[in-house]
């Protein structure tokens, strides 16, 4: 799915007409997981003058860049963001993280060759394995019911 497609899907799923103030966090949360890739491309192409074929075949797969991408697409980190935002009574931040999670869940189903480490990267931190049962999806449903 392309980046604008994520915004459309997220607004359809998470947007509510009676809560228009949440449209901006939903839209921004839908775009934020792809933002590191735009930063990567701009840096490699404009700053380093890396040739297009090297960007697509080598630079993109560099472990440093992959770790940068993975942080913005990590379901455990995003779930933690939702929990902290809920604890601090910040509904806009919670919706932003939920929107990022929805983007990431859609990517799980659609990306094969260029998938991210959606359950955080084991060489960076503590989350090695996380079951889908009763985690982000359950939290998202629970949060939406509480609104």
Question: What is the strand and helix layout of this fold?
Answer:
Blueprint: H1 3-14, H2 23-31, H3 35-47, H4 52-57, H5 63-71, H6 75-87, H7 91-110, H8 136-146
Helix pairs in contact: 1-2, 1-7, 2-7, 6-7
What does this structure look like?
This protein has 147 residues and is an all-alpha fold. It has one domain. Helices cover 63% and strands 0% of the residues. The chain has helices at 3-14, 23-31, 35-47, 52-57, 63-71, 75-87, 91-110, 136-146. Helix 1 packs antiparallel against helix 2 (23-31) and helix 1 (3-14) crosses helix 7 (91-110). The longest helix has 20 residues, at 91-110. Residues 121-138 have low confidence and may be disordered.
Number of strands: 0
Q: Rounded to an integer, what's the Rg over CA atoms?
A: 16 Å
As for the number of domains, it is: 1
- Sheet/helix structural class: mainly alpha
Query: Overall 3D geometry?
Result: elongated
Mean pLDDT: 77
- Poorly predicted runs are 121-138
- Element string (H = helix, E = strand): HHHHHHHH
Oligomeric state as shown:
single chain
Number of helices: 8
| Helix content percent band | 55-70%
| Major beta sheet summary | none
Residue share in β-strands: under 5%
Distance between the termini: 28 Å
């Amino acid at each position: 799915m392309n980046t604008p497609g994520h915004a459309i899907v997220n607004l359809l799923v998470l947007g509510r007409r009676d809560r228009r103030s949440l449209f901006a966090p939903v839209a921004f949360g839908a775009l934020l997981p792809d933002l590191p890739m735009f930063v990567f491309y701009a840096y490699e192409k404009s700053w380093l003058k890396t040739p297009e074929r090297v960007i697509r075949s080598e630079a993109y797969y560099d472990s440093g860049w992959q770790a940068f991408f993975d942080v913005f697409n990590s379901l455990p980190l995003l779930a933690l963001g939702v929990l902290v935002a809920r604890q601090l009574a910040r509904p806009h931040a919670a919706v932003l993280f939920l929107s990022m999670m929805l983007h990431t869940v859609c990517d799980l189903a659609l990306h094969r060759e260029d998938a991210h480490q959606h359950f955080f990267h084991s060489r960076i931190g503590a989350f090695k394995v996380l079951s889908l049962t009763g985690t982000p999806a359950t939290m998202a449903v629970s949060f939406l019911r509480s609104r």
